[in-house]
Amino acid sequence: MLKVLVVDDSLIMRRNIKKYLTSLGHNIIGEAKNANEALAFCKENKPNLITMDISMPGMNGLEAINKIKSINKYFSIIMITSYGKNNVVKTALQEGAQGYILKPVTEEKLYESIGKIYPEYLLLEEDIEEVKDL
Amino acid sequence: MNEEVKVVHAYTKDLLVPIIRRVKTYLEEEMKIDVFNCSEIVYPKNIHLKRNTIMIGTSGSIKLIITLGYDDLLLNKLVEIFTHGDNIEDIDTNEVKNSVACEISNTIIGNAINNPIDNSDIYITPPVLVSEAKTLYKDKDSKFVYVSLVTKYGEIQLTAVGPKEQFEDELEFKDI
Fold first, then answer.
1. Which residue from A10, A55, A87 is facing B99, i.e. has the nearest CB?
2. Contact B123, A98 (CB under 8 A)
3. C or N terminus of chain A, fewer CB within 10 Å?
4. What is the three-class DSSP state of B26?
5. What is the band of A127 on the pLDDT scale with cuts at 50, 70, 90?
6. What is the ipTM of this complex?
7. Domain that holds residue A35
8. What is the CATH classification number for the domain harbouring B20?
9. Beta carbons of B82 and A13 less than 8 Å apart
10. Quick one: what percent of chain A has pLDDT higher than 70?
11. Out of A112-116, A130-134, B93-97, B135-139, which region has the weakest mean confidence (pLDDT)?
12. Is residue B174 part of a domain?
């Protein structure tokens, strides 16, 4: 089970991402609606994973990556973006993000993206069915 | 709404048509809501925005203001789908509606925005809600582009506002 911080200025996105991650068996230890709140949280807590929206008022997600990595370089970051056709994703990965999800966010996309960083969380299909049956 | 001659610059066509297409595919593929009809693009002298309208600006070498306006019934349906039908009692209903409209607009425009001029990146501003119906009037240096997409729950109104020089060539809209 990963300890996750969800960073998004959108109320409904924070809610949906928390719901998907909880369904995947992870533990939401915090949420932040902007980069400054995320930085403050990361100074006091140790999330394994941070999901972070790129486009936020004030400091955007790209600017926040470096600052979060300077607090703890082992924090894993998955960027969430609506940009499908520009270099934002490339920049995010260069800045130190481990993965990205192109909106719309779904539980499946989160599962796959987390699995690329933490392969041990990739369940076999029969395992998923077994978990759902519990 | 007074219509003007249908003229739009080629790069505006390349910019706007992908957004119109993404509105359609988003509704049909992500939300499972059929789009019955897509109006022709018109170039009005004024635009009456719907009560639930989201405004997003672009920055970079193309500067436009794009709005997406939602009929009440359609937005209620989108909220229902977006929240998976969950009863969200702990959050104000209007706040949820606003948040869903902003998120959908951000996703549609972000997914579709591209730069047909010089391929440099175009960024979009965080979405802003226009909470009351407003009428926009153009001045001599600006131009409006308007199109609407109709579903059984009502329509989405898509508008773009930009400098007049960005709208010069003819756009055939039949291939949407």
1. A10
2. no
3. C
4. helix
5. low
6. 0.86
7. 3-133
8. 3.40.1550.10
9. no
10. 91
11. A130-134
12. no
A125 confidence band (pLDDT: 50, 70, 90): low
pLDDT bucket at B12, cuts 50 / 70 / 90: low
| Total structural domains within chain B | 1
Residue B62: inside a domain: yes
- In chain A, positions 1-40, which contact chain B (CB-CB < 8 Å)? 9-13, 15-16, 19
pLDDT of residue B4: 45
Total domain count, chain A: 1
Query: Does A56 lie at the interface with B, CB-CB under 8 angstroms?
Result: yes
Number of residues that this document lists for chain A? 134
pLDDT for position A119: 85
A3 alpha-carbon distance from chain centroid? 11
How far is residue A6's CA from residue A119's CA, in Å, rounded to a whole number?
A: 20
Q: How far apart are CA B15 and CA A133, in angstroms?
A: 47
Task: Write out the two tokens for A61.
Answer: 């997600």
Q: Tell which of B14, B107, B125, B128 to mutate to test the A interface (max A CBs under 10 Å).
A: B107
In tens, the pLDDT along B113-124 reads 887 777 788 888
Amino acid at B114: N
Pairing of strands B65-70, B52-59: antiparallel
Return the H-helix or E-strand segment holding A126: helix A125-133
